[in-house]
TrEMBL record:
Name of the molecule in the record: RCC1-like domain-containing protein
UniProt keyword annotations, A-Z: Repeat
Cross-referenced PROSITE patterns: RCC1_2, RCC1_3
Ranges: RCC repeats: 61-115, 124-178, 187-239, 240-302
Coiled-coil regions listed: none
Entries under Gene3D superfamilies matching the protein: Regulator of chromosome condensation 1/beta-lactamase-inhibitor protein II
All residue ranges annotated as the RCC1-like domain in the record: 2-332
One Pfam match: WD40_RLD
């Protein structure tokens, strides 16, 4: 409708090839004759989408955009407007520089761009343009921009080097590190724009027109990834700590909300997200954190594990359910054991079967790996089931400390004794929550029994002989 597919025509329910990229030549203003004479198609190195806009960075460092974009062809620079662009076009204002990263919100854009023609070291500056009705451009005012402008906080004279950018609907988050190396790895998260849901993490719900650091994050810490949902923000450190802040903790964006019994308001400051995994409270070997509209996904364990939490509508959490999760739960990855078998069969074809002995050993190892991975898959399912069941009853994530000591020591469990001991040690709040849970469960059972009894009576009446028979 607004050109966000990057192709001419109506909406499409299937992927469409953006053939325009194959036809595009190098920008005409290029002074490099070898580039102008080259017939090779441009190579897309990075893509980003947000709101109704899409962006691509090519192998020359040029930025392309399409969709509902700021009207850069307009001569009226005082009036901000969006125009539908169904095919990619270059952002000419940044031509002659190398665009390294880009992020976009509903109607605003943030880009990391080299000071000179090429990117060398930490010579990056931060540009922003688009809608600025909440200060999400970080330029110190609420005036929207049709053309990119440098955010003065992060110009070439700034002691901080920006290395990650992310945009929410109407706010922006950046990660920076000291330009001069120091003995400790130090980084900082900066946010600006709309803050009404606490998405800036500054301890208030006020909006900010210029970048401000999220001071309640611990120091020193080195953050490796940041992302924004519509109204929340998440970061992950190299050590495996994850913090989130923003809209409606009761929807699961921040896990401790459910302990208070439902929606307890927004998280205006960073909250540490506990892992509650057998290896400890941290997420081992984190890779990246990314945010949807109202949920968060974390890649950890060097890419071998996925965690998710937040609003679970449409199954976006990938844990086999559609309910909200107040704490991180494991995503089944790979989804089935067939994925392992497929991958191993392709590897087997590439292996050298030079002798029968080698082939026999490979077969045994393959069978052993299949069995191990199958057990891992089943264990992951049981762990998720246990976590969901435990969370439904006790309203908190399952932890190894919740396993009864008798079962840990002897391998046997006296369920009656453990139940009495748990009730004896529970505080009033916990007993009230359990009473409400079982009361609702009992009401549901009674309702089902009543409906089934009514159905049986109706069937008996229909089957009974009529008058005079």
């Amino acid at each position: 409708m607004d050109g966000q597919l990057g192709v001419e025509g109506d909406n499409s329910a299937v992927p469409c090839l953006m053939s325009e990229f194959n036809e595009l030549a190098f920008p005409k203003s290029s002074t490099n004759e070898s580039e102008m004479n080259s017939k090779a198609p441009l190579k897309v190195c990075s893509v980003k989408a947000g709101g109704m806009m899409s962006f691509a960075i090519d192998n020359l460092g040029a930025l392309w955009m399409w969709g509902n974009c700021p009207d850069q062809s307009s001569d009226n620079t005082e009036e901000f407007s969006l125009v539908s662009c169904p095919t990619p076009f270059p952002v000419w204002d940044l031509h002659g520089h190398t665009v390294v990263k880009v992020a976009c919100g509903n109607e605003h854009v943030i880009a990391l761009v080299s000071v000179g023609e090429t990117h060398e070291g930490e010579d990056l500056v931060c540009y922003s343009w688009g809608s600025n009705n909440h200060g999400q451009l970080g330029l110190g005012d609420k005036e929207s921009r049709l053309h990119p402008e440098i955010i003065k906080t992060f110009n070439e004279d700034c002691p901080w080097a920006v290395y990650e950018v992310a945009c929410g609907a109407f706010h922006t988050a950046l990660l920076t590190r000291r330009k001069r190396p120091s003995d400790t790895s130090e980084s900082m998260c900066w946010t600006f724009g709309l803050g009404d849901k606490g998405q800036l993490g500054h301890g208030t719900t006020q909006s900010t027109l210029v970048p401000e650091p999220v001071k309640q994050l611990p120091q020193p810490v080195y953050l490796i990834s940041v992302d924004c949902g519509l109204f929340h923000t998440s970061v992950v450190s190299l050590a495996g700590d994850v913090w989130s802040w923003g809209m409606e903790r009761g929807l699961g964006l921040c896990p401790e909300a459910s302990y208070a019994g439902g929606d307890v308001g927004d998280a205006v400051s960073p909250l540490l997200i506990p892992c509650n995994w057998k290896y400890g409270p941290k997420f081992r070997n984190p890779v990246q954190v990314t945010c949807g509209a109202a949920h968060t996904v974390l890649v950890a364990d060097d890419g071998y594990k996925l965690w998710s939490w937040g609003r679970g509508r449409s199954g976006v959490l990938g844990n086999g359910d559609t309910i909200d999760c107040y704490a991180p739960t494991l995503v089944l990855w790979p989804p089935t054991t067939e994925g392992f078998e497929q991958g191993e069969s392709s590897e087997d074809k590439a292996m050298d079967k030079s002798s029968n002995e080698t082939a026999e050993m490979d077969g045994k190892l393959s069978l052993a790996m299949e069995e191990i991975k199958s057990l891992q898959s089943r264990l992951s399912k049981m762990e998720r089931y246990t976590s969901l069941l435990h969370g439904s009853i006790f309203r908190k994530p399952f932890d190894e400390q919740d396993i009864p000591s008798s079962l840990q020591d002897s391998g046997t469990l006296d369920i009656a004794k453990e139940w009495d001991d748990m009730l004896e040690s529970a505080d009033r709040g916990k007993l009230v929550r359990m009473e409400m849970f079982y009361r609702n469960m009992l009401a549901g059972v009674k309702d089902k029994l009543m409906k089934r009894r009514i159905k049986e009576i109706v069937q008996e009446c229909l089957q009974a002989p009529g008058p005079g028979k």
